[in-house]
Amino acid sequence: MTMMGIGPDRRAALKLGSFAMPLHPPGSNFSQMLADDLDQIIVADQLGLSEYWIGEHFTAEWENIPAPDLLIAQALGVTKNIILGTGVSCLPNHHPFVLAHRIAQLDHMAKSRLHWGVAVVSRETWKSSGTARKGATTAA
């Protein structure tokens, strides 16, 4: 009998995953960088990684993935086993009703291959963190 990944000899199996903090130099071709990120997910699946998390960033010039759920939806069709996750959905950037429905639909599409990470950060924290740039705003 096995419970929670622990075999009959009581040793836990080690599973490897990846967190993609997609770093792209400012001025990179956005379409190409998304294609490159998708290729990384495909290779991770082929190498047998158990999960792959994709960060959400609206304002950072280097980390510019505003919709990890869309990249996950695309990756579902070209991967076989890897579990994909949002790392994270920043709740203040989304209307809760819309986000809940988007993630629920994605969960059905993923057929048990989705992890949903969430974070709460206030606009005050965001503004004082040094992340905010002149003219940059968060969505309400």
Structure description:
With 140 residues, the chain is an alpha/beta fold. The protein has one domain (17-50, 65-128). Helix content is 34%, strand content 16%. It has a 4-stranded parallel β-sheet with strand order 1-2-3-4, covered by helices on one side. Strand 2 (51-54), helix 2 and strand 3 form a beta-alpha-beta unit. Helix 2 packs parallel to helix 3. The protein is globular, with a radius of gyration of 17 Å.
Give descriptors for this structure.
globular; 4 strands; four-stranded parallel sheet; 34% helix; alpha/beta; 140 residues
Q: What's the structural blueprint in terms of helices and strands?
A:
Elements: E1 17-20, H1 30-46, E2 51-54, H2 68-76, E3 83-90, H3 96-110, E4 114-119, H4 123-128
Parallel strand pairs: 1-2, 2-3, 3-4
Helix pairs in contact: 2-3
* Average predicted confidence as pLDDT: 84
Question: Gap between N and C termini, in Å?
Answer: 49 Å
- Domain count: the total is 1
Q: Based on DSSP secondary structure assignment, what is the total number of beta strands?
A: 4
Radius of gyration: 17 Å
Structural class: alpha/beta
Unreliable stretches: none
N-to-C series of helices and strands: EHEHEHEH
| Secondary structure tally, helices | 4
Strand order of the largest sheet: 1-2-3-4
Helix content: 25-40%
The main sheet comes to: 4 strands, parallel
Q: What portion of the residues fall into strands of 2 or more residues?
A: 15-25%
